[in-house]
Specification:
This protein is mainly alpha-helical. Helices cover 38% and strands 7% of the residues. It has one domain: Oxidized Rhodanese, domain 1, CATH 3.40.250.10. The chain has 4 helices and 2 strands; from the N terminus they run ααβαβα.
């Protein structure tokens, strides 16, 4: 299955003046639960540009305890080639 999420709206600290700040563990878990993601799921992250947001999302998932996370090499542009 494929799930789309908006990194800034779904997985960043709300109300923070700094961009892309990692949410609290509780906030992260709430967002993950809304997407029906859990620690045993394989999560492959990618972005439209190929390398900007995906590594940050990968790091965040790893920091929050998700071990089965991958970055799609080259992102969506490489996949579409």
């Amino acid at each position: 299955n494929t799930l789309r999420f908006d990194y800034d709206n779904d997985f960043c600290l709300p109300g923070c003046s700094l961009p892309h700040m990692i949410p609290t563990e509780e906030g992260f878990n709430q967002s993950a639960q809304q997407l029906v993601l859990n620690n045993v799921d394989l999560i492959v992250v990618y972005d439209k540009s190929g390398t900007l947001a995906a590594p940050r999302a990968w790091w965040m998932f790893k920091a929050m305890g998700h071990d089965n996370v991958r970055v799609l090499n080259g992102g969506l542009p490489a996949w579409l080639e």
